[in-house]
Design brief:
The complex is a heterodimer of chains A (247) and B (272). Chain A is an alpha/beta fold. Chain A contains 5 helices and 17 strands. Classes of the chains: A alpha/beta (247), B alpha/beta (272). Chain B: GO terms for molecular function: ATP binding; ATP hydrolysis activity.
Chain lengths: 247, 272
């Protein structure tokens, strides 16, 4: 019983996940002198606001080869009244340095290094387009298609997942309230979580889609990062944004 | 004939070579000794008679037969060059709605009594005319140019073939699909200006019947009213002969898919 803890006097604490809004100081270049000067100026504008504010230092915009003096950076930040709590977007070596300074290493959706993940800029909600043709509709829980979904065809499952063991042509649409799996090239449009489920995901062997959408949040082909095009990917919704990760 | 096969030549997109292919294919089958009828479904924009060179002999047409204004053998035009080959021209004055489901079926059934193969030249698009041309088909030749718009339209047609034909409605084995690439230029493919055979096959994933090279012989043949397959020395003519032979079950290697090597002989003889 998850709620029993409240009523049980023997339990000294609850341990659960939550999220806080936290400042992230994202270093744009390896120039600590300039960063120090600019930080002083920034704090001068709103000293009360920044006083004792927890901050996470992000190194994700720096080249991996660059040697940054992490200890120096942390002391610059501390000197202005911030409380550094962790770092993110760092290399393996920097992780060790952070551990030595008792700083947490945070992996945010955008912060991971070497992790082929792409996070969409801004979520856009769109209503599902009306199906062009009379849709192939499965009332059963899930549907597995073995033939290609051709341009102009629209396949919708009422419940569960949709699996296509072939390609989905450009101009075709596939829709499911659950997950969508395409074991060929996804060239058309895929709408997972069409009933609004943010937990639905899209998997495909080759991403060449015109549009992907989860729970109404979509990305069009133009928004896909070049390095994930034509790759096997996994798409999920997290924090209101679509995340594309290489499989 | 109980084994009559109805073949639709289709593409979705216009101007890719459906009529050229219908004419060449029908003549190729007839030259192999099969009694063949080629039917123009492009009512209102009839072209097949021109390509076949019989436009001056059209008296009655497909729509006349459907409307019972003429008998089928009054409308069928015998090809003067090839035994076993007959043309059923389209009407130029009517519209596609004249092709009723019952009417088309009646005419095809009557053709089945005497012919081994019925080649249906589909109009472009995915409307009624194209639907009628494909509905009764047993096999389909999907004509595609090596460019993305044509490939996408072919994909669309393949979707319709798999869902909207009589064979599917009656739960029989689906229409057998063949890919025919036309206007293919290996030189342009090698320069990256055109989709390759491999690219297109990867997208459409149906068996390749043949590749017809971009050829001056096609336009010449059209303007002379002689199906290009009759020009046995032209590259396009040879490629169509290969296709017909493959269709009839022969195993023939693909030609005209690699860039030509300029030899000293081709300079002397002006190789085609």
């Amino acid at each position: 019983m998850p709620n029993s803890a409240k009523h049980d006097n023997k339990v000294a604490f609850d341990l659960k996940g939550t999220s806080f809004t936290i400042l992230v100081l994202s270093l744009r270049k390896n120039d600590l002198d300039a960063a120090a000067v600019q930080l002083v100026e920034k704090v001068r504008q709103a000293a009360d606001f920044f006083h004792n504010a927890p901050v996470v230092i992000s190194l994700q915009h720096l080249d991996e080869e660059e040697q940054i003096d992490l200890a120096m950076l942390v002391s610059i930040v501390r000197a202005q009244g911030f409380i550094p709590v962790g770092i993110t977007g760092c290399t393996e070596q920097q992780k060790h340095q952070a551990a030595a300074m008792e700083l947490a290493v945070l992996t945010t959706r955008a912060g991971g290094r070497g992790q082929e993940e792409f996070v969409a800029e801004e979520p856009v909600l769109i209503p599902l387009p009306a199906a062009q043709e009379k849709p192939i509709t499965a009332t059963d829980t899930s549907l597995i298609l073995t033939e290609p979904v051709r341009s102009g065809q629209s396949v919708t499952v009422e419940q569960g997942d949709l699996t296509v063991m072939a390609s989905v042509g450009s101009g075709a649409e596939i829709t499911a309230p659950g997950n969508i799996h395409v074991y060929g090239t996804l060239r058309g449009r895929a709408f997972a979580g069409c009933n609004g489920s943010p937990k639905a995901r899209i998997f495909c062997q080759r991403l060449e889609a015109e549009l992907v959408s989860i729970a109404g949040i979509h990305l069009v082909s133009e928004d896909f990062p070049a390095h994930l095009r034509s790759k096997a990917v996994h798409i999920r919704l997290h924090g209101g944004r679509l995340h594309i990760t290489a499989l | 004939m109980t084994n009559t096969k109805i073949i639709v030549i289709t593409s979705g997109k216009g101007g890719v070579g459906k009529t050229t292919t219908s004419a060449a294919f029908a003549m190729g089958l007839a030259l192999e000794g099969h009694k063949t009828a080629v039917v123009d479904f492009d009512v209102g924009l009839r072209n097949l008679d021109l390509i076949m060179g019989c436009e001056r002999r059209v008296v009655y047409d497909f729509v006349n037969v459907i409307n019972k204004e003429a008998r089928l053998n009054q409308a069928l035009i015998r090809d003067k060059r090839t035994e076993n080959l007959y043309i059923l021209p389209a009407s130029q004055t009517k519209d596609k709605e004249s092709l009723t489901m019952e009417g088309v079926e009646t005419v095809l059934n009557e053709l089945k009594e005497t012919f081994d193969y019925i080649v249906c030249d589909s109009p472009a698009g995915i409307e009624h005319g194209a639907f009628m041309a494909m509905y009764f088909a047993d096999e389909a030749v999907v004509v595609t140019n090596p460019e993305i718009s044509s490939v996408r339209d072919s994909d669309r047609i393949l979707g319709l073939l798999a869902s909207k034909t009589k064979r599917v409605v009656e739960n029989r084995t689906p229409v057998k699909e063949h890919l025919l690439l036309t206007r293919y230029s290996p030189e342009r493919v090698s320069r990256g200006e055109m989709l390759s055979v491999k690219d297109i096959q990867e997208i459409l994933s149906i068996p390749l019947l043949g590749v017809i090279p971009e050829s001056e012989a096609v336009l010449t043949a059209s303007n002379q009213g002689v199906p290009v397959i009759a020009n046995r020395n032209s590259d396009a003519g040879m490629a169509y002969q290969d296709c017909v032979a493959r269709f009839l079950g022969e195993d023939i290697e693909m030609r005209f898919i690699d860039p030509k090597k300029k030899s000293i002989f081709s300079k002397f003889f002006g190789g085609n």
